[in-house]
Amino acid sequence: MDLAHLIPILVSTVIAATPLIYAALGELVTERAGVLNLGVEGMMLIGAVSAFVVGIKTGSLLLGFAAAMAAATAVSLLFAFLTLSLQTNQVATGLALTLFGIGLSAFVGRGYAGMPIERVPKLDVPGLSDLPVIGPLLFSYDALVYLSLGLFAAVSWFLYRTHAGLRMRATGESPSVAHAIGEPVIAIRYLAVMFGGAMAGVAGAYLSTALTPMWVEGMSSGRGWIALALVVFGTWKPLRVMLGAYLFGGVTVMQLYAQGFGIDVPSEFLSMLPYAATIVVLVLICRDPKTILLNQPASLGKSFHPDA
């Protein structure tokens, strides 16, 4: 494989990984607070259709992304109310949220299927974008790609360098102890769930306005589940989660390029590669329970009530 083929593959890998980074880092923050939200797939689809519809109606992609964040955050608030205030089971509620998101997005977007929308523009850096090799590798992306790197830096800084991040991690490790020393556990968890919802909305909006600039029912194609797996794959560490997103982005891209390289493999087999890779990685990690338990929040998925 020569450089002329390698550069487009690397660029496509970065772009394919971007929605995974947003969704996975948002879920990472949620889980660090001790809440397991399996509704990422549904929130991504709601974000995708919201961004597309508002973008088409107003002609503003910025308003589209704002609408995606608002809609997904509203749905995450519903999840938070049910699980944190009403104490419903987090796993069952998250699965219901995914089904709700799939159905609602299909209903809202049924009149927009196949319609094109102006793609999120790439940033052109004068003097840098035209450089050989370095130009296309580093300066040929849209703003959301660079903002995903900023999100990684911000989440890492917040979790490990701020008092607020320490308080949030404490609620995920032992909410009863955090409550005993005066921490507002439920409020912190609400904020974490809302942040996760907002990032899932951005991830969905990126799908419908940048990665594939049109609305297609079910266009997330399981990326929400891959984002959930990435949190485990990265053992709840932001850097590992981001690197995992690029790894899975590369697998996704390679299955698209494989047939172009003359690899005689059925297309159905290639299409399942990202999901098969997810299963294989999780199986390998889970063979050693210590790897999982090393950073997993001790109270992940467990309900907490201040009066209990």
Q: Quick recap of the structure?
A:
This protein has helices spanning 3-32, 40-58, 61-85, 90-108, 134-138, 143-161, 163-173, 175-180, 185-211, 223-233, 238-257, 267-271, 273-286, 289-293.
Helicity range? over 70%
Helix count equals 14
Low-confidence stretches: none
CATH fold-level assignment? ABC transporter involved in vitamin B12 uptake, BtuC
Range of strand content: under 5%
What is the correct CATH architecture?
A: Orthogonal Bundle
Radius of gyration: 20 Å
Alpha-beta classification: mainly alpha
Membrane topology: Multi-pass membrane protein
Main location: membrane
GO molecular function: transmembrane transporter activity
Pfam families: BPD_transp_2 (PF02653)
Please describe what this structure looks like.
It contains 14 helices and no strands. The protein is mostly helical and about 300 residues long. It has one domain (about 5-295): ABC transporter involved in vitamin B12 uptake, BtuC (Orthogonal Bundle), CATH 1.10.3470. The mean pLDDT is about 90.
